[in-house]
Specification:
Blueprint: E1 4-7, E2 10-13, E3 16-18, E4 21-23, E5 28-32, E6 39-44, H1 48-67, H2 70-86, H3 88-99, H4 103-127, E7 133-135, E8 138-146, E9 149-153, H5 159-172, E10 176-180, H6 187-198, E11 206-208, H7 215-221, E12 228-232, H8 235-246, E13 252-255, E14 261-264, H9 270-278, E15 293-297, H10 298-313, H11 333-348, E16 352-355, E17 368-371, H12 378-381, E18 388-394, H13 397-405, E19 412-416, H14 420-429, E20 434-437, E21 456-457, H15 462-469, E22 470-477
Parallel strand pairs: 9-10, 9-12, 10-11, 12-13, 14-15, 14-19, 15-18, 17-18, 19-20
Antiparallel strand pairs: 1-2, 3-4, 5-6, 7-8, 8-22, 13-21, 16-17
Helix pairs in contact: 1-7, 2-4, 2-6, 3-4, 4-5, 9-10
């Protein structure tokens, strides 16, 4: 197995990054490109040995990094952001090759957001404070103490952006990190390790270990030296991580699946509502926040559906490197099988295909809309994670809210309405970590982010991230007993 591979002209090291050094494994796993199914390269396959070494490196580096001043930590995070911005084109083409998302989106939105993640938390760190208060003449001072080594396990649908949502606040908080990227899209995490090292991040503060399956994940999440675990992914994997972490009572932040609704009321701007619905096919439907359940008021359902179909028909599906492509491939043959299985079972159960409902050549699935679906059916209740939407109708606002909340998930919700009063009233009743009104996917890092019910545990973003990645301490000081008067 070679130490490095060339991906679209970019050199990528396929070994782990542990303690400031590249470390190879005896075994490897194949990384496939969803664009054409070809093998991009063989990636070092980590074992519990590499997991233990990475945690040990993070533990050894922690005291010095935790003692590093806020200003210096912020400076290094800004330097990492500088490095990302210098390599946006390289990061974009590597990630598109690796996970199939649109190259134009990576260039213009995703990779600049990666740099912003580091800049935001660097700046937030410098203004992080809590107002002191008094209790019966005693002063109270709240501080955020670095917690220790963190294990961050990230998904394949937006690999670098979602990884840096976690890495940036953890490093800003003074923690050290072991990052385990998804096996279907590991490459940009390796490039991040190079960028961080070039920015002057001390050895062992950021470690990257690759793996396939649960072997290395289990070793990382059960390690007693790990002080925080943050995971984005599926509910079944989260259950496994929680069980693994339970023995050590390791605090968890879990951002999990979604089955989010889009509520379209008759008073909505219908063009806007249709645009919001079509936007749910972004990234070939591989977005946990996607509003995959479209709920439309009876009176406008027919017109909405026709406008929606007309717009979807004109979407271009193909090579994600092409500027004119709107929808790229799904990431892996296994994922494509899952998507098609959901659709075919739904059709067998009585669902009607309005558009799509079938595979296309390669790893592409046609943008799909299903109607005549029962509320308790699998296609309405379970996350598909592909370009598959369902459409149901409602007669009243109360029915819309009931249908919207009637799943085990609660990650997000989107609603389209022309009434501000209705927007406020309905948003108050929706079970969701984020509610978008007449918009979608507007995400400010200072806002809390996470899900309710089976969509997650905890919140990250802004001060909430530091609350998680730190041990909060309150120091209570009496006004007496001091001998000095300085």
């Amino acid at each position: 197995m070679a130490d490095k591979i060339i991906v679209a002209g970019v050199s990528v090291d396929v070994r782990h990054w542990i303690g400031g050094e590249r470390v190879a494994s005896a075994e490897a796993f194949a990384d496939l490109s969803p664009i054409d199914g070809s093998v991009i390269g063989e990636i070092s396959r980590g074992t519990p040995t590499e997991a233990a070494a990475a945690v040990a490196a993070a533990k050894a580096a922690f005291p010095s990094w935790a003692a590093t001043s806020r200003a210096e930590r912020a400076r290094i995070l800004h330097a990492i952001a500088d490095g990302v911005e210098k390599r946006i084109e390289e990061l974009a083409i590597v990630e598109t090759t690796d996970n199939g998302a649109l190259l134009r989106s990576h260039r213009r939105g995703v990779m600049p957001r990666v740099a912003h993640n580091f800049r935001f938390f660097a700046d937030w760190l410098l203004k992080l404070e809590h107002e002191d208060f008094e209790t019966r003449g005693h002063s109270n001072h709240v501080s955020w103490d670095p917690a220790g080594p963190c294990v961050l396990i990230t998904p394949w649908n937006a690999p670098l952006m979602l990884a840096t949502w976690k890495v940036a606040p953890a490093l800003a908080a003074g923690d050290t990190v072991v990052l385990k990227p998804a096996e279907w899209s590991p490459l940009t995490a390796s490039l991040l390790a190079d960028i961080a090292a070039e920015a002057g991040l001390p050895a062992g503060v950021l470690n990257v270990v690759q793996g396939y399956g649960s072997e290395i994940g289990d070793a990382l999440t059960s390690d007693p030296d790990v002080r925080r675990i943050s995971f984005t992914g599926s509910v079944p994997t989260a259950r496994r991580i929680a069980a693994s972490a339970a023995a050590n009572l390791t605090p968890l932040s879990l951002e999990l699946g979604g089955k989010s609704p889009l509520l379209v009321f008759a008073d909505a701007d219908l063009d806007l509502a249709v645009d919001l619905a079509v936007e749910q096919y972004d990234n070939a439907g591989q977005v946990c926040l996607a509003a995959t359940r479209i709920l439309v008021e009876d009176g406008v359902a027919e017109e909405f559906t026709q406008r929606f179909v007309d717009k979807v028909t004109n979407l271009a599906q193909g090579d994600p490197r092409d500027e004119t492509t709107d929808i790229g491939p799904n990431i892996h043959p296994r994922q494509l099988e899952m998507i098609d299985g959901f659709v075919q079972r739904a059709v067998a159960a009585g669902a009607r295909v309005v558009i799509g409902g079938h595979r296309k050549d390669g790893q592409f699935y046609a943008p799909t809309l299903l109607t005549e679906v029962a509320q308790d059916s699998e296609i309405v209740q379970e996350e598909v994670f592909g370009p598959v939407l369902t459409l149901q109708t409602f007669a009243t606002e109360e029915e819309a809210v009931r249908l919207a909340n009637d799943t085990r998930f609660g990650l997000a919700a989107t609603l389209a309405t022309g009434s501000r009063e209705r927007a406020e009233r309905v948003a108050d009743q929706l079970v969701a970590g984020t509610v978008w009104v007449n918009c979608f996917f507007v995400r400010d890092l200072q806002a809390p982010f996470g899900g309710s019910r089976h969509s997650g545990v905890g919140r990250e973003g802004g001060t909430w991230s530091f609350d998680f990645y730190c041990d909060l301490k309150n120091t209570v000081t009496a006004p007496k007993g001091f001998k000095d008067h300085g």
